[in-house]
Each structure stands twice: as C-alpha cells, then as structure tokens.
Amino acid sequence: MQPPDRKRLARLQRLERIRAIAKQTAAAEAAEAEGTLAQLLALAERTGRLADDYAARRDIADAGALQQLAQFREGLAVVSRGTLADAARARTHAALKLQQLSEAERRRQAVDDRARAEAKALAAHGGQAPVGPRKPLGTGLE
After folding, report:
1. pLDDT tens digits for range 90-102
2. Residue 107 lies in a domain
3. Closest CA to 4 of 116, 132, 131
4. What CATH code is carried by the domain that includes residue 22?
5. Model pTM above 0.85
C-alpha cells in the first residue's frame, strides 16, 4: 500500500460526495419508475374491471345496441392489453432502476471505505485528516 497522503484523501472525499449525488439521482429515478409502475397497474386493474362490468351487461334492447356494446368491449380489451403490456415494461424498467440504485450505493460505499481507511492511515502516521477548510480563515494580522 502507498503511504498515506492528504491529497489522495481529499480526492477520495470528493469522489465520495460525487458518488453520493449519483446515488441520490438513482434513488429518485427508481422512485419515479416505481410510481409509474403503480399507476399503470392501477389503470390496468380499473380497465379490466370496467371491461368485466360491460361484459356482464344483459340489458341490450336491440341488435344495434348489442353491436355497439361489443365494439366498446373490444376497445376496452385493446386498452387493457396495452396497459398490461406497458405495466410489464414498467416493471422491467423499475427493476433495472433498483439495480442501478444498488450499484450506486455499492460504489459510494466502496469509496467511503477507502477514504476512511486513508484517513485512519494518515492519522496513524502522525498526520491529521483534513477536517476544515484548506486555507486559513482571516488575515495574517490576527
């Protein structure tokens, strides 16, 4: 292992902040994908229920009404199948986003572990880990 270095520690800490932002972005994308999936599943369920309700209707007055009801039911069935297909794609997309979130957390944690190890090694060699700003505050007159 290389000797501990303040600059390396600072780079690792910056990288950890970048990875934390990437993780937050991945979490937001995963939440959005899950929300879309939930909306599509609810829509598919409502559309299916509506199609079932119209299929159960028996109050048809004449052949024209029967034909109109059959066309409407077929239209609902097409919408229902399309919504179910969209929900299946959304489920796949949501699973991918959750996997990306998991990977982002692993990358962030790996950098965090390296930064902690570097800070610990720096402290063990008598150096102090950078805690505050690198430049002194105030003026030289104080």
Report:
1. 999 999 999 999 9
2. yes
3. 116
4. 1.10.287
5. no
